[in-house]
Amino acid sequence: MSETGSLERRRLALYGWMLAGPALILLTLFAFLPTVSTIWQSLYSRETARRPSVFVGLDNYRALIDDPTFWQVVTNNLVYAAVTIPLSIAIALGMALWANSHLPGRGFVRAAYFTPTMLPMIAAANLWLFFFTPSIGLIDRITGLFGFAPTNWLGQQETALWAVIVVTVWKEAGFFMIFYLAALQTIPPDLREAATIEGAGRWTYTRRVLLPLLMPTTLFIMINALINSVKLIDHLFILTKGGPYNASKLILYWIWETAFSYFDRPTAAALTVIVLAAMGLIAVLQFRGLEKRIHYR
Amino acid sequence: MVASTSRPATSRSLVLPSLDAIGAWVLALVWIAPLVFAVWAAFHTPRAALAFDISAPLTFDNFVAAWRAAPWPRFFLNTMMLVTSILAGQLVLCTLAGYAFARFPFRGREVVFYLVLLQLFILPEVLIVENYVIVSRLGLFDTILGIGLPYMASAFGIFLLRQAFKSVPRELEEAARVEGCGWVGVLWRVYVPAARPVYLAYALVSVATHWNNFLWPLVITNSVSTRPLTVGLSLFGAPESGVNIAVISAATLMTIAPLLIAFLIFQRQFIQAFLRAGIR
Description:
The structure holds two protein chains of two kinds. Chain A is mainly alpha-helical.
């Protein structure tokens, strides 16, 4: 009896591995293997026509740390994350509250908020390019009405990164709104009535009841926004190309440039390892949170 | 803003829009302004587009010029083939793997599942340098399959389907088993139909994502016969190509039109699908 039981268990295990196998092979090939080979590659010197690649230990990392461009790009990306994450989340929450209430033309409002999500970043950048064009662009036209001088938004170091940030927030907020909308619809309307009877104003209700209930959604969105602050760089190719003088360069764009414009694979690999380490840290934090939620159940 | 919610219902018919409505509308207008401007520019001559001359005549010339300037039909075809093959691969691989993680106890399942989830953070985008090497070694450089392969085993898809399969009551499975279904039959007759909304939501997200994806296709393609729309558009619209605003607008609208029209038609289903997937 026990023998047939263990046989059955082994059969199930075999099926399990067979079913998961194809996906696991591809994941190994395109996620785990490249991660390992990136780390490996980052420890070797750049191969040139004269000199073959040799093991150099942490030299590539040391070179990066000594490179002021590295610190500028890291700072840029931190600013990019620190601004786009809270800003797009706050706007998304406002959008969701509006899109969930009974407004005239709610369908149009929802569609308008969500539409940027459907556009490729490249197309979004093309659309925004005209807004940012000095003098003839829409933004300068409007500020011009108030007597401001034309500004080269994309072409000067003080504003280039901010222009990039605006496009990212515009693109992201509508996407995050969807998750808040989903969460809002699970909140029973009685809660609001109860709060009103208790004499709670709208602001109190939002702060004391809604926001705590939306916390898991906010966390989920925050992780997404964090990942996006590394990933969303396509618009740089159109808007600024990381310039002027690296003022708007973000890490992933720099990785691409280093590997495919300067053909410096080891440096690109070292940069990739740094990004992966940062992402890994976020993953650990996220899994901790996930585990907590599982324990609650 | 507080006043708007407590207004008595009797005066509803004649009041001015509330501050909330105005705020929501202003934000909505700001949010679609870039798109509206692109439509404006695409149908006018470059000069009229920038002059904001309302009385300027409409023209189709920009679309004609844009259409002639690049092999768009080929780019469209490439994108469609790419999106379809990725989705097909994802549906098959994630269904099988999700089924395995949901219903088959095997040693190390939890650990393997966490490894899979790790891919949510090891983005294919970040690994472009090494994935470029691997795809090239497989002989898939500059092929549609080469663009799609790294995305097919999607951790997100595996996760979603595992959750969906886990919520299917065991009794359904046992009933099917009594009727003589094997493992494949149970998957096909019980689990897949039960997870239909999740499939729909996942498919929509996948198509939208890969229709819009840019960086990896840029890296791994090298010719007109494989480049998707986004890469084509970026080469076409790059400032150094010297194409004017009106023509770029026309080209941009052309590339986003299929997805945008589909979204506007199926808006309700689309947002519902998103909401139902729950992505908890």
